[in-house]
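Here is the promised in-class demo. Please do not try to memorize the tokens; focus on the logic of going from shape to residues.
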């Protein structure tokens, strides 16, 4: 049974799970090193590092936040309040929704997140006096 396809699949799944676990741990460590987190461009209240989604991803703006987790950033306006003459700044809302991804999808995002936070850390070292 050495060529059992189910065993190969189980082995491949175990590798992905291990990679996901290790990347989760790495992102937590990197997030600690990246403190303080930069304000997210265009957001008023959110601090995080943008993570470029893999091609074909259904997720919008994904960010790594200071807890080392991945979130989808949702920014919007209360259109009814704006229509009634409300201030666009006052009616703006920002929400972060923690992404719960299957391990294979998480690995893709987490690798991109690790590269993004490392770029931030490198830029800080390069700009240090």
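The designed amino acids, position by position:
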């Amino acid at each position: 049974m050495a060529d059992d396809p189910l065993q190969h699949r189980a082995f491949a799944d175990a590798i992905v799970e291990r990679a996901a676990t290790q990347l989760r741990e790495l992102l937590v460590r990197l997030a600690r090193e990246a403190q303080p987190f930069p304000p997210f461009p265009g957001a008023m209240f959110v601090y995080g590092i943008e993570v470029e989604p893999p091609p074909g991803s259904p997720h919008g703006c994904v960010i790594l936040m200071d807890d080392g987790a991945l979130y989808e950033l949702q920014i919007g306006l209360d259109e009814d309040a704006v229509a009634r003459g409300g201030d666009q700044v006052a009616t703006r809302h920002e929400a972060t929704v923690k992404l719960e991804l299957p391990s294979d999808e998480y690995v893709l995002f987490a690798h991109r997140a690790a590269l993004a936070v490392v770029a931030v850390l490198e830029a800080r070292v390069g700009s240090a006096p």
